[in-house]
Design goal:
The chain is α+β, with helices and mostly antiparallel strands. Helix content is 14%, strand content 32%. It has 3 helices and 19 strands.
Length: 338
């Protein structure tokens, strides 16, 4: 009898414990998510790649080791990039949609370089990278910038006037600036447009041809996605020094590879910009949504089909495109957040 009563007591205790566990599950999870101390949570030395983690938050950049210990901090932390020389290159402000320029700080946090794009029709945003330009024999900075175009300029390029905002539109450009603050190369989507709306314009598809004949160019009159401010919303770019090529990603689900090497002319920015605007600057490769160049089925789920995930579209809400570096699994392939 004692054994039975004991068993029964343990059974009631177990039931009570289970009830208490269910009662406290939600608060414990909320605590874990919002109040748990910042520290190393887990580390498997046998499987984790040994190294350091570099990130910025709240105006401070941190370098931590595998034990989660802070090795160093810098007094910047918007979108920091750790450079080969140990300095940190960061956006000037913490608004990714438009930050004007950049600042570079050394190990001690001292500003050693800064740059602001003074042109009123250019708006740096989201991503940038420091590269070594072998043709120039110097380091330069590549960055994405929204470039303003008037309604008249858009219509002159073959846009449907009924769909062009009175205020005009913005198309992304990729700008390269040297350490003296000079623009030495520039590429813009506006120079690589094609359209089948107005046969009188130079970028018309031509007799017997369609948008499908021009995978290297961007359709100016995308179905369901008329021109507007921040039309493509490019949010990341990367540079391949071996190929001398640039990849840039649009959040709507497509990324593009362009040729920097064959269009850059050392010591001649004007010629470089002209080359980049020519057919030599057309896309070498694109991936994500073949319907954009009429070689795949067009999504019909949403009015703005660039936001849909139907059809042959492969990417959506894409961020952080990059080439996988030498010595890593997948070397030379693209890695992108989908």
């Amino acid at each position: 009898m004692k054994t039975k009563r004991g068993f029964g007591l343990r059974g009631k205790a177990a039931t009570l414990s289970a009830a208490l566990l269910l009662f406290f599950v939600a608060p414990l999870r909320a605590y874990d998510a919002l109040q748990r101390p910042t520290e190393l949570q887990f580390w498997n030395p046998a499987k984790a790649e040994n190294g350091y983690t570099f990130f910025g938050v709240g105006g401070t950049t941190y370098l931590i080791n595998m034990e989660g210990r802070v090795v160093h901090t810098w007094p910047v932390g918007n979108n920091p990039h750790l450079l080969d020389n140990g300095n940190v290159l960061d956006a000037a402000t913490n608004d990714p949609s438009g930050f004007g320029g950049f600042k570079e700080v050394d190990w001690s946090g001292r500003v050693v370089w800064q740059y602001t794009d003074q042109r009123t029709t250019y708006h740096p945003h989201h991503d940038f990278t420091r590269i070594y330009n072998a043709k120039l024999g110097a380091y330069t900075t590549l960055y994405i910038a929204n470039r303003d175009f008037t309604a008249a300029e858009c219509i002159a390029a073959g846009a449907n006037p009924a769909l062009v905002p009175v205020s005009g539109a913005q198309l992304d450009a990729i700008v390269e600036v040297d350490l003296s603050g000079n623009v030495v190369w520039e590429w813009c989507f506006f120079d690589h447009l094609v359209q089948d709306f107005n046969a009188a314009k130079p970028n018309y598809v031509g007799v017997g041809k369609t948008i499908a004949n021009y995978p290297g160019r961007l359709n100016l009159n995308l179905t369901g996605h008329p021109l507007k401010g921040d039309w493509l919303h490019c949010n990341s770019l990367d540079y391949n020094s071996k190929l001398d090529q640039i990849v840039v990603n649009s959040v709507q689900g497509e990324f593009y590879v362009i040729d920097h090497g064959s269009t850059f002319v050392a010591g001649n920015p004007a010629a470089s910009i002209t080359n980049a605007a020519s057919s030599a600057g057309d896309f070498l490769y694109r991936f994500g949504d073949p319907a954009r160049y009429a070689q795949g089925s067009t999504p019909a789920v949403l009015a703005d089909w660039t936001q849909s995930t139907a059809g042959h579209k492969q990417l959506g809400g894409a961020h952080d495109v990059q080439w996988i570096g030498p010595g890593l699994t997948g070397e030379g392939h693209f890695l992108i957040f989908n």
